[in-house]
């Protein structure tokens, strides 16, 4: 969430920057400034009335003590009028504050200067590519056919149990899934990230804190009886660990990693491009989250990108990195890099990770601050990244590593899964 003072100081610059997101934001920014000015005026008027009321109350007490009952009663009538006025002002102030808060929830983050112009994912800019795309044998299969051939993922059984988008992993498929989770967590903890096990449901305050609400409410599963949401990503519960927290400068950076299942409704997507593991309602993901001082956050972002690159290099998968354009970047992000692995059997790129810097946007919603060396309170910067999302990594391994002997497991995973081939 943007700070109103920053909106006031940078209205034209913010309006211009938000054009990258293909939205006309100036009316929203001006409305936020107007509501804030009204809020300040109401607050000042209310403070004056409350001060006057307190002053009169003291005078009334003195008059009663001195026996001047008639004067005291006249002042009591005046204080009653002030109380009615203060009640009306308090209600109007609360309404104005709520309108301002709800408006600010609808304004996305300001894109970083390096975010390219563009409207769709076709306008994203490739900034890095690594690995050799393998030439597969004749008769190479997409992963959903390989899953059936080697009996490692049962999509039909998932439909029976829950519905489409809820696969059942079995045998070596389940072991490979578990191996990837353990490998990712070990890589992250070795890099200094502290592992957390977190709830897989969150309350509304947590969804608002990281920006999933109200922006992505329709994409989240909602547990009506308990007013809870199934998490769409581990970023939500992990980052909310620090909601309403004041940390000291020496605490930073704070680095976290967590494995969670993730749940997304992903309504309205059909076709071959979402077959198999390409798009699911439930999937596993290992996340990394950082809380940083503002001046260090972009160096930290580069470090997160390098960390994910190292993992993909060890998995021997061909991949590329995209800098997302203004029309494709997430609501809360200032800058995002997407990682995509090449699926040779499908002849297409599959997104497997997003690494983002939210600057102070989430921290303002979360009320996540730190005290600098001078004792001044500052908003921290938050970052997160997938390290990694499992379904498309698994799809990439199955498709790119298929041989006449079976699926050859990348060397880095053999100690975790205990086998060299799925055959």
Specify the biggest β-sheet: 8 strands, mixed
Ranges with pLDDT <50 over ≥5 residues?
none
Question: Would you tell me the overall average pLDDT?
Answer: 94
The number of helical elements comes to: 13
Strand order of the largest sheet: 1-11-12-13-16-10-9-4
Indicate the overall shape.
elongated
Helix content: 40-55%
Computed over alpha carbons, the radius of gyration is 27 Å
Distance linking N and C termini:
51 Å
Structure notes:
- By secondary structure, this protein is of the alpha+beta class.
- Helix content is 42%, strand content 21%.
- It contains 13 helices and 19 strands.
- It has an eight-stranded mixed β-sheet.
- Strand 12 and strand 13 (348-357) form a beta hairpin.
- Helix 3 packs antiparallel against helix 4.
- The longest helix is centred in the first third of the chain and has 40 residues, at 26-65.
Relevant terms:
single chain; 423 residues; alpha+beta; eight-stranded mixed beta sheet; three-stranded antiparallel beta sheet
Compile the SSE list and pairings.
Blueprint: H1 4-9, H2 11-18, H3 26-65, H4 69-106, E1 125-130, H5 143-149, E2 153-154, H6 155-161, E3 168-169, H7 172-190, E4 194-196, E5 201-202, H8 204-210, E6 222-223, E7 228-230, H9 235-239, E8 246-248, E9 254-263, E10 282-292, H10 297-314, E11 319-323, E12 335-343, E13 348-357, H11 361-366, E14 369-371, E15 377-379, E16 381-389, H12 390-400, E17 402-403, E18 406-408, H13 414-417, E19 421-422
Parallel strand pairs: 4-9, 8-14
Antiparallel strand pairs: 1-11, 2-3, 5-7, 6-7, 9-10, 10-16, 11-12, 12-13, 13-16, 14-15, 17-18, 18-19
């Amino acid at each position: 969430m943007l700070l109103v003072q920053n909106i006031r100081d940078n209205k034209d610059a913010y309006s211009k920057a938000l054009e990258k997101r293909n939205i006309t934001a100036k009316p929203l920014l001006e409305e936020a400034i107007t509501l804030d000015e009204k809020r300040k005026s109401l607050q000042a008027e209310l403070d004056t009335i409350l001060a006057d009321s307190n002053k009169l109350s003291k005078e009334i007490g003195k008059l009663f003590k001195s026996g001047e009952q008639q004067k005291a009663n006249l002042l009591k009538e005046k204080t009653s009028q002030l109380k009615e006025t203060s009640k009306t002002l308090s209600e109007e102030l609360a309404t104005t504050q709520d309108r301002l808060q709800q408006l600010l929830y609808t304004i996305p983050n300001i894109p970083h200067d390096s975010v390219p112009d563009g409207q769709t994912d076709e306008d994203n800019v490739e900034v890095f590519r690594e690995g050799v795309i393998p030439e597969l044998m004749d008769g190479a299969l997409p992963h959903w056919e390989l899953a059936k051939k080697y009996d490692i993922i049962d999509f039909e059984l998932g439909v029976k149990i829950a519905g489409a988008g809820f696969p059942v992993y079995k045998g070596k498929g389940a072991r490979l899934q578990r191996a990837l989770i353990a490998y990712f967590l070990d890589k992250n903890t070795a890099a200094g990230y502290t592992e957390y096990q977190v709830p897989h449901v969150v309350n509304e305050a947590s969804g608002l804190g990281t920006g999933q609400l109200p922006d992505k409410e329709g994409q989240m599963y909602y547990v009506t009886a308990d007013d809870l949401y199934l998490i769409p990503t581990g970023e939500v519960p992990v980052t909310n660990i620090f909601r309403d927290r004041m940390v000291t400068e020496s605490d930073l950076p704070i680095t976290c990693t967590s494995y969670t299942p993730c749940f997304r409704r992903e309504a309205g997507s059909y076709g071959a491009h979402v077959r198999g593991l390409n798009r699911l309602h439930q999937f596993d993901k290992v996340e990394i989250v950082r809380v940083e001082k503002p001046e260090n956050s972009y160096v930290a972002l580069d470090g997160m990108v390098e960390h994910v690159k190292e993992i993909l290099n060890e998995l021997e998968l061909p991949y590329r990195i995209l800098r997302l354009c203004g029309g494709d970047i997430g609501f809360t992000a200032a800058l995002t890099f997407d990682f995509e692995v090449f699926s040779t059997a499908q002849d297409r790129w599959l997104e497997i990770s997003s690494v983002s810097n939210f600057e102070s946007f989430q921290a303002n919603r979360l009320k996540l601050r730190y005290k600098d060396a001078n004792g001044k309170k500052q908003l921290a910067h938050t970052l997160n990244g997938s390290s990694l999302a499992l379904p498309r990594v698994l799809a990439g391994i199955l498709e790119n590593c298929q041989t006449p002997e079976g699926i050859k497991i990348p060397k880095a995973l053999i100690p975790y899964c205990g086998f060299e081939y799925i055959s």
